[in-house]
């Protein structure tokens, strides 16, 4: 795996708005995003959500009311939120947060299409996990 320099520096502003369930970010380039906690949760970069490869993604449902209960810096390149449903393994790099913020409309459309294809909606409770978080280790 090759590593490359991040495309985006840390945001100048990062605010967790608990009441409105939005993470607000502002970058030096003028970009400003308000990302709903639900979007962050359903697109968590964790293996629990993304799987370990293409086609292994786990469709997240029942996350409309999820909160961020804590958020911690990870070096100078990311943050790691703790969600009220117990999910805490996603490390959100500045580049990934910028992507989520700038592509929100497309990501919501993709999510709605995946929900429709699965015959569920945003509020359908998640099915219980079988085995461990990833099932492979």
What is the strand and helix layout of this fold?
Elements lengths: L12 E5 L4 E5 L5 E5 H6 L4 H4 L17 E7 L3 E6 L8 E2 H9 L1 H15 L19
Short note summarizing the structure:
Helix content is 25%, strand content 22%. The C terminus is likely disordered.
Provide structural commentary.
The structure is a single chain. The longest helix has 15 residues, at 104-118. The chain has four helices and six strands. It has a three-stranded antiparallel sheet with strand order 1-2-3. Strands 4-5-6 form a three-stranded antiparallel sheet. It is globular. It has helices at 37-42, 47-50, 94-102, 104-118, and strands spanning 13-17, 22-26, 32-36, 68-74, 78-83, 92-93. With 137 residues, the chain is α+β, with helices and mostly antiparallel strands.
